[in-house]
Amino acid sequence: MKSKIVTIAVTAALIMGCILLTSHTQVKDPAKRILGGGTISILTETLCPDVDGYLGPTPLDIRIKNDTIVDIIALNNEETPVYFAKASSLLKKWIGCTPSEGLELEVDAVSGATFSSEALIANVKAGLEKALEKSATK
Asked: Is residue 14 in some structural domain?
């Protein structure tokens, strides 16, 4: 009877270990999604939770295909629309760059929307750094 209990306990421990190991290796990166057509989407919400514009976070969705930035989409935020529209105009400067080129790109804040601009620039840089991580491209 005692050996059956030990066998059951060891088996249960092995099963739990396998479950934990499997779940650990399958944890998805909340900052990265793989979209159709080989496009990678980098979401900066979790990468830059403390990067604020004038009124709060300014998260982005950075789309990369074939190692080229194809789009940068501003996600929901609390910024004043007129100022945020000015600031978000700078996002097009990264379109067509590789993530490495984008990190080297020096982009100045838009006058009149400095806080929003600086937050967007920080979000882009963090997203591109994430894109260059080995795990973000597989």
From this structure: no
Expressed as residue numbers, the domain containing 50 is 32-137
Among 12-21, 41-50, 53-62, 120-129, which stretch is predicted with the lowest mean pLDDT? Answer: 12-21
DSSP-derived secondary structure for 8-52: HHHHHHHHHHHHHHHHHHTPPPTTEEE-GGG-EEEE-TTT-TT-B
Predicted TM-score of the model (pTM): 0.76
Phi-psi region of 112 (alpha: psi -120 to 50; beta: other; left: phi over 0): left
* pLDDT tens track for 53-77: 999 999 999 999 999 999 999 999 9
62: nearest Cα among 127, 112, 16, 136: 127
Q: In terms of Cα–Cα distance, which of 56, 32, 54, 55 is closest to 43?
A: 32
In a domain, 27, yes or no: no
- Compute CA distances 90 → 84, 98, 120, whole Å: 10, 16, 9
Q: Which of 44, 33, 39 is nearest to 128 (CA)?
A: 44
